[in-house]
Amino acid sequence: MLPPPLAFVHEPSPQRIVFGASALVRIAEEAERLNFSRIMVLTSPEQVPQGQAVAELLGWRAAGLFSEATMHTPVAVTERACVVARQKQIDGLVAIGGGSTVGLGKAVTLRTDLPQIAIPTTYAGSEMTDLIGQTADGRKVTERSPKIRPKTVIYDVDLTLSLSPMGSVLSGLNAIAHAAEALYSPDSNPITALMAEDGIRALAAALPAILTDPTERAGRSEALYGAWLCGSCLGSTTMGLHHKLCHVLGGAFNLPHAEMHSVLLPYSLAFNAVGAPGAMAAVTRAFQGRDPIIAIVDILAKSGARRSLSEIGMPADGVEATVRTVMEADFPNPRKVTAEALSAMLTTALHGETPDRAGFAAA
Ligand code: NAD
Description:
Blueprint: E1 16-19, H1 27-33, E2 39-42, H2 48-58, E3 62-66, H3 75-87, E4 92-97, H4 99-112, E5 116-120, E6 131-136, E7 139-144, E8 152-155, H5 165-183, H6 190-212, H7 217-236, H8 241-253, H9 257-273, H10 277-286, H11 292-303, H12 319-328, H13 339-351
Parallel strand pairs: 1-8, 2-3, 2-4, 4-5, 5-8
Antiparallel strand pairs: 6-7
Nicotinamide-adenine-dinucleotide binds near residues 124 and 125.
């Protein structure tokens, strides 16, 4: 039987993607395509050697290295980077690192209009979105702006080899969360659905392979490919309860980003399964017919990652305030969210208990 007639909007973003092992060697050529002649390389304090390697490859075009990228994009750091950019008459940014470093690049672009080349080294997906979350005075505020999408993204699998097996699993599950929510997003369309399912398929196969042999490039490459697709889904659709909860929890309790997504994902899927049977069927196909909730819990357990919100820093009395904030927020979700059901779900996740597939007391 044919599906019902289609109706959708799809707006592809004009980004150039360069993907492959050793793709980083093309950085000078890519900078030239964008007419960059005075480049500021951005990175985190931990990734200075990678930043220096990029500066070396850029040669005379490299005009500075700013290595203060920090989780949650603090405005104070961004402002320092903007001062340096002005002093050095920078005309282009190259960010190498995870979501925090790409986020710093976006925050600088927002204020200066400087274009960015992103070289992601995790699977967080920020390089494919027009979203930026910035923190000031303990509050994280998210906004969208088309100009902050990096012009070019270089995915070099070699740069992910240093990501620990557990770090790869946490980051990979963060990516899967983007695609899972894209599948039931109100602005999902046939293209995002294809990308989401294949992104999850790639990561579901790659993460166990990375745990088995972290030095094997095939698994790393497949994971990075999946991350690209999942990040594209995040950039093209509106996220639901899972991302809203992570935003609220991250802001309130400063929980580690990828770990928080990973701990929560099985609970979010169990919560929404009843409201999004089509999406769950796609996620199950992507996991080769395995129950995705069991498969994700299994991958997490094998990686040795922490499995409850309390273990990663959420206080036991934090549930009520989180439920209140989420209930006040506006976000799309395939299943109606009630305070009772959300409270049951969060309490279960707080203690790392088995996700309740029956719909958290069907409250
Ligand atoms: P991260 O960028 O904070 O990196 C975590 C740590 O891992 C850092 O110390 C980093 O230097 C290190 N690291 C990164 N790549 C490495 C590698 N290959 N080898 C060894 N160490 C490496 O972590 P993340 O999870 O990538 O990003 C999280 C941040 O990104 C959050 O602030 C989140 O809000 C943001 N984010 C934004 C979007 C968006 O669309 N705006 C999407 C996803 C995440």
